[in-house]
Amino acid sequence: MSTYSSRAAESLITPVESWDEETLINSAQRGSVDAFNELILHYQSQVYNLALHIMHDAAAADDATQEAFISAYRALKQFRGGSFRAWLLRIVTNACYDELRRQKRRPKVSWEDFGDMEEEANPHLVDDGPRPEESLQQRELQALLERTIARLPEHHRTTLVLVDRLGLSYEEAAEAMDVALGTVKSRLARARREMQKLLQDEQELLPSRYRL
Amino acid sequence: MTQRRWSTTEVSAYLDGQLEPKRQAALEADMEHNVALRRRIEEMQHVVSLLRAEPLREPPRNYLLTSSMVAEATPRTTKSAKRTPLLVLRLATSMVTLAFVITFGLTALQGNLIPGMQARSSAAPEAVMMDQPVEPAEPDDALSVMVMPEVLTDKDDLEMPAEEGEPEMLLAPLPEAAGEEDEVERATAVESAEPEMSVMTETDPGDEVVIDDVEAAALEEPLPSDRVDLQREPSPEADAAIEDGEQFLAEDPGEVTGEDVPTSPVEDSVMVVGLDEGGLSPWISRGLGIAAVILAAVTFWLTYQPLSRRK
Question: Could you give the maximum distance between any two Cα atoms of chain A, in Å?
């Protein structure tokens, strides 16, 4: 039996049943900003992290997240059911891709600069004093993962983040990226294999318990 | 033992439980004997676990929408769509209103303030001004005296009282536009067969018109042929009009002096305003007024209708 998959899925499933998402969506569609804000509070972390992984820039991710929520509110009446999370993440994905296409016309920032900017923009990563070793390792691992994910091709990266970081199902990921289910499978498999190779190259930076 | 090759996609899908049941059973059966396959699966599972175990970053802030953000967001689509037609409508209303005011004013002027004076046309003054000599005309020349030389030669006729404080107006007859080539321009400007050509003198009240014989003789000289000839042969109609003018001037308390009366052909060629027989039709101003009211009502309704709907 698929013990790996069942355990992983259980740990990632958001307990949507604990709050009435459908009621909130209906209220928001009737113009309730408060109801929509409830939805924002629930999904803003996932939306922001997806934007951050796609954009590689905290400020750009911040802007993209806010714009995505505003766009979602405007287009809420067009939502016809299904996975609201996938619909929301699709909006932010498209917004990020559009922004990336615009940025391609401008000179790119080097990877070293990107790392510095990330640390400045995210106080969680700034080493501003002695901390417990475990916490430090945690932050280093997080930074390493983010850098490694950022080296993946664009579509592979998005698929990996949607499924393995945000916990979307294959169907939701297909809806969020507007691709076929088979495409999600193949992209995810390649992304995982590339990720595995990259992490093996950086194995000395991984904590001992995470080494491959 | 047959070792089957398993693609990365199948291995990845197996980790997520997305493999078909038959393929999944076959893979699991193969794993029991295939160490390499088992290791591949374990390594990939390690990567997946690593990715899923790491917590997501906390967003730097909340992205809650406020009423102002929603208010800005909602009309943005309708605003751009409605702005352009509304602006055009407002501009049209302003233009029509302005045209109405102008035409109404002109109509009132020609009807009340300057009795006997007909409306100007824009083309007629050019024809006359082209023929004016070098001597610059004063602004008041636009309404200054246009007196027929023949008429002015008669000293006694000019010694008439002028109304105090107001420019004098002399109704000078115009000849009928009858086929003379040198009168073509004037004939086009003056459509009426019996127009009332209004002329005004720049005379001070109390001055007397004194024209000596030399000046009178000069006045009697015919105009050059290349000029617009405002003279005409004396005719019974002209005499009647002159008499009318005399009557008009006789009502004025002031007097006209010879110095103030244009005595040369130059001064005679004072502005011939473009005259239309009927002047500006009152229907034009009425039509413009109605159009302005309708446009204003439509603009007002379109501007404030969304607000009332929101309420």
Answer: 54
Please identify among residues 14-53 of chain A the ones whose CB lies closer than 8 Å to any CB of chain B: 33, 36-37, 40-41, 44-49, 52
Token reading at B153: 């030669």
| Contact state of B63 with A44 under an 8 Å Cβ cutoff | yes
Instruction: Name the amino acid, one letter, at B108.
Output: A
Distance of alpha carbon B254 from alpha carbon B54, whole angstroms: 108
Over residues A145-171, mean pLDDT: 94
The answer to whether residue A181 scores a pLDDT higher than 60 is yes
* Residue A140: closest C-alpha in chain B: B54
Whole-angstrom distance, CA of residue B200 vs CA of residue B153: 17
**Residue B146 corresponds to which tokens in the numbers above?**
């246009």
pLDDT tens by residue, A35-58: 999 999 999 999 999 999 999 899
**Looking at the complex, does the CB of residue A11 fall below 8 Å from at least one CB of chain B?**
yes
**Which of B250, B245, B253, B247 has its CA nearest to residue B165?**
B253
Contact A124 B12 (CB under 8 A): no
Pairwise CB contact (< 8 Å): B77 & A74: yes
Mean local confidence (pLDDT), B119-134:
46
Instruction: With respect to residue A146, please indicate whether it lies within any of the assigned structural domains.
Output: no
CA distance B12 to chain A (A): 5
* ipTM score assigned to the predicted complex: 0.76
**pLDDT, position B4:** 61
Q: Is A145 left (phi over 0), alpha (psi -120 to 50) or beta?
A: alpha
**Angstroms from B15 CA to nearest CA on chain A:** 5
Q: Establish if A22 belongs to a structural domain.
A: yes
Q: How many domains does chain A have?
A: 1
Chain-chain contact of A163 with B54 (C-beta, under 8 angstroms): no
Residue A140 inside a domain? The answer is no
CB A169 within 8 A of CB A57: no
* Cβ-based contacts of B73 with chain A (< 8 Å): 70, 73-74
Q: Is A167 within the bounds of a domain?
A: no
Per residue in B218-246, pLDDT (tens digit) is 555 554 444 444 444 455 555 555 555 44
Task: State the best of A76, A77, A164 to mutate against chain B, taking most chain B CBs within 10 Å.
Answer: A164
Residue A70 structural domain: 16-107
| Beta carbons of B1 and B30 less than 8 angstroms apart | no
Note whether A45 contacts B65, CB cutoff 8 Å.
no
Look at residue A175 and tell me whether its pLDDT is greater than 70.
yes
CATH number of the domain that A72 lies in? Answer: 1.10.1740.10
Contact A48 B49 (CB under 8 A): no
Residue B123, helix vs strand vs coil: coil
Domain ranges of chain B: 8-53, 89-118+278-311, 120-277
